[in-house]
Amino acid sequence: MDSAQVWAPDEADGFKLGRIVDIGGETVTVLLNGTSQTITAPYRCVHTAEEDSNKDVDDNCALIYLNEATLFNNIKVRYNKDKIYTYVANILIAVNPYYEIPSLYSMDAIKRYQGRSLGVLPPHVFAIADKAFRDMKVLKQSQSVIVSGESGAGKTESTKYILRYLCESWGSHAGPIERRILEANPVLEAFGNAKTMRNNNSSRFGKFIEIHFNNKCNVVGGFISHYLLEKSRICGQTKGERNYHIFYQLCAGAPHELRQKLRITNPDDFHYLRHGCTQYFCSSNSDKQLNSNHKSREHREKGPLRDPVIDDIKDFSDLDRALKLMGLSDEERFNIYVVVATVLHLGNVTFEECPDDTRGGSQVAATSEPSLKAAAGLMGVDPEELRQSLLSRVMQTSKGGHKGTVYMVPLKAYEAHNARDALAKAMYAKLFDFIVQRINQSIPFSSSSHYIGVLDIAGFEYFQVNSFEQFCINYCNEKLQQFFNERILKEEQALYEREGLRVKKIEYVDNQDCIDLLEAKGTGIFDLLDEESKLPRSSHTHFTAVLHSTHQKHFRLAVPRKSKLRDHREIRDDEGFLVRHFAGAVCYETAKFLEKNNDALHASLEGLVLETKNKFLRSLFGVGSQGSSPTKGKLSFISVGSKFRSQLQELMTKLEQTGTHFVRCIKPNLKMVDHLFEGGQILSQLKCSGMTSVLELMQQGYPSRAPFADLYNMYKCYLPPELARLDPRLFCKALFKALGLNENDFRFGLTKVFFRPGKFAEFDQIMKSDPDNLAQLVRKVQKWLLASRWKKAQWCALAVIKLKNKIIYRRENLVMIQKTVKMHLVRKKYRPRYQGIMRLKAILKQVQHMSQLLAQLKDGQQSKLEVQALEAKINTAIKRIKEGSLTADAINKEHTALMASVTAQTSLLQQRLQKQKLAEEQERIRRMQEEMEQAQRKKAEEEQRRREEEEHRQMRIQMEAARKAEEKARELEDAKLARSLQEKLVVEQKEEMLRNQQLEQESRDHELALRLAQENNSVVDDVITPVLPVKSQTKNKDGKYDLSKWKYSELRDVINTSCDLELLASCREEFHRRLKVYHAWKSKNAKKSGRDTSHERVPSLLRNGVAASSHTAGGGDADTRQRYFRIPFRKDGTSSGLWLAHFDGQYIARQMELHVGKPPVLLLAGRDDMQMCELKLEETGLTRKRGAEILEYEFDAEWNKHGGAPYLPLSTRQK
């Protein structure tokens, strides 16, 4: 088999290296290197490997083979060398190292990347930030950097490094602006980040940070927009996770005086903290400073948590200093801490059923009275008013009785707990809004021309229990993935088409159907959830049932029992739903969907905080409050989902109006430790991020471009007058020629010039706008134009010389023309006389010949005198013609008379000679008979030879007639079936595309479920989603043999040895079908630089004929005729020769390649199958090529001449 190295898929390691040892109809078997283990996988999952699998490159586009396996291996090799950044064209892939790499983000690194284009220095997040800045500066357009990836992949850290680069590079003269922008990060992380199972510093909200620049490209301000804070985390966390960092920073780092005022102890004393992880993040030094009373029991037993960037004690000091830098006074900072402490104390207020209340109300537990008083004191309200607001809600009648009557409706214990949690979440959310607002106010802002925005939002999430927060986050990621597809794939290909670059179209999975399922008007999940929330008696089970009934047959939606994870299949159909996202299937539990989608408070609680004595708390709810009037009859409803959708739409509008740059963050392992590369889950992240589709596009694409007019206008003011008059396109051409750029690295469109991937250095050399560089480029252009014009002048001089020589040549040939015309006129005039003389001279020669006859006569004196008289008459006639005394008619009459005389005289002489020769005739006859007998023998031999040639000619005529008859019959059949076949082909293509998408989705679902099972020690069961059947896999019920499980070598052995003709035919059919699939896979995985023709098995004109004959292929397998063909064959582009083939029935038996100056190539079936033509005779189209078929003796002559082995036809084998 083929000895080339390939990558085979592996669930644990992603891909493993091996070589192909067997090929099947739909799968291929790979033997792994260094082991006896084999992997059987579909062709689409096996990829060609690089010659050196340990080589790494900065840009994956520089690899010879561009596929997901080589991308994965390059990232793995670089990760093992501590190279965490890799390019895919202009997209950066960043792998989280989980430790601090020395000098990677130092000031020297920042200076090193300033003004340097992509590809000049090793990949780095600073290079992306610098490119965004230079694009903004050159293109005069705002830019966005989208940092995406799973939780724990390093998005937040990448965002901080981008902001640091922009502020420290171009914000040093802007006073405190850049400092305040950078100091906003610890504040936002304290109030918006938390420890999860997958990330110690997970952002539980999304943010879009804008750095604004003036027309001189100096930093003049900033602005932060935030999205979807995870409020449910405030009231509870799963085991091993923490609440927001601020709660632990306050417990660990607050000074003694502040702790006394806020009554802060340790996390074990607070209900909102004790159910999760209660350990602090501390370094060894800070842990020693921590008072033992401030530590939780878990912290004392297990010790502190370790993280290189998080320290709760130190971070509180940094937070307080950052708030002070933002302009918050001591009182304002204290008020912020008061609200945080209030949330903790409010969580300690618990409720129990009140036995004395006849209406089923509840009461505050006796053990919670101190917490109630502490919370009320911090809030600035009366404890009894707080108690009453938590235990009841206000209702105002709109019908019946006295209109407008207010009633106090008591709450059950679980309703009181929900009201408490709603108040705590509302207070914290309002506080977070206030902090973001104050950060924006603290950043000085002046006139802005453009901005660079950095988007950091939670990545795709999937847990054991997924609720409304995960649903919104994954909806956001669906929209971002669609934007990525539109911007990178769809818009890019549309631009190539408009500019006429003729780049091959790339297919990708469109997730529009999933987005429609989520946000469609009226029927989308968000709208159905809002409608359910507005019902008088809403329930999550009714919402789930309506959802499933509305989208019964939607591919993206399924019931929980269809999940691959066993734990999810235990969820009832009316308590959850499964969505097949672009990254994999996620099962959502709807138990708290309605509660989390409502952002409104009970009227009694809202009224309480609006009347508090705490001015700060009152201002939080008073500014921008969602209506302050009590609702009538039921709880007010403010949709969180609708608010998030509108915010997301504003964000998408911003992104669409800016130039975009992508940073794809990758999480290397689930344990969050350094130098551990878990291949399976990393490969899943690469597939989900769309990198494989980008590879296919970038292999043929042009990721960098610039309009002709922009380049021309950039240099116009520096150009001398003679260059300023140039057309922009001509100027760009002159510029590129002057720079000496490789013409294969760029291409001119209609309005823009495009550059190949990895050629950013050349592109950036042009785009630099410093005066010295521009002046140097102008000089180069002038030099090139001067050289170009000098070459044109030389060409013109040569053209003039050529014209001069042409004129001289024509003048000399005019004389020849004149001579020829004169000759024609003279010939026309004197031709009759000349021809008359020539005819008389011919008669005269006959007369002279008669003199020779006279010499044979024994008595010829009288005949001699008659001949002399006739000769004298002829001479006299010739003399008269020369003198010109005879006309043309007279000449003809004279010639006729003389001719008659000569004929009569000749006849007389012949009669006399006849008698004389009678005696001699007998002897001559005898000799003639002998000669005739000899001639007859030669003629018989010649006749035999001609007969054989005639038979061969008739056989060729019959072959040609048969070919024409077959072609005519085929044309008639094609005319009948063309329309039906075309319709069938369209349907099959649609089915195949849908099947591939379903298989890809099935693969992603399986990978996602496998990763989740590894995290939670659960079990993955394969629940196969029904997909369209593959017609090639459908077996004929009447078939005698099932060969689908036979090995390739077994098939070949049967073909070489078996005498069972039926088994032989089946094996040949399966054998050649596998060969075609294998060679099609090899062709698809050919080198990106072009197809290697040195190993062609069949001429290209036969390979091109496969598609044309595919609808008729498959017939005639029972044909046992031996047919022979010969066609020209150009193998490597330089040498030409002949390709000869012997077909035994429909399959090739012998094959020859004859090239001048090269040894012949003789291939025999059963021995050299991998190098021979794998196509059926009908598929090659040879029978339709005129003159291609030859006779058996012609093929055998060449075969035997070059020492070919004998061949026994299959039909002659004896059982």
UniProtKB/TrEMBL annotation:
Localization in the cell: Cytoplasm
Residue span of region Disordered: 287-306, 929-954, 1086-1119
Stretches assigned to the Myosin motor domain: 55-768
Keyword Glycosyltransferase attached: no
Keyword annotations from UniProtKB, A to Z: Actin-binding, ATP-binding, Calmodulin-binding, Cytoplasm, Motor protein, Myosin, Nucleotide-binding, Phosphoprotein
Gene Ontology MF terms: actin filament binding; ATP binding; calmodulin binding; microfilament motor activity
Sites where the protein binds ATP: G149, E150, S151, G152, A153, G154, K155, T156
InterPro entries linked: Kinesin_motor_dom_sf, MYO6_lever, Myosin-VI_CBD, Myosin_head_motor_dom-like, Myosin_S1_N, MYSc_Myo6, P-loop_NTPase
Cited Gene3D superfamilies: 1.10.10.820, 1.20.58.530, 3.30.70.1590, 6.10.220.10, Kinesin motor domain, Myosin S1 fragment, N-terminal, Myosin VI head, motor domain, U50 subdomain
Biased composition range(s): Basic and acidic residues: 1089-1098
Actin-binding: annotated span: 648-670
GO biological process, one term: tissue development
GO cellular component, one term: plasma membrane
Lineage top rank: taxon: Eukaryota
UniProt family annotation: Belongs to the TRAFAC class myosin-kinesin ATPase superfamily. Myosin family.
Protein name per the record: Putative myosin class v heavy chain
Organism: Ornithodoros turicata
Lineage: Eukaryota, Metazoa, Ecdysozoa, Arthropoda, Chelicerata
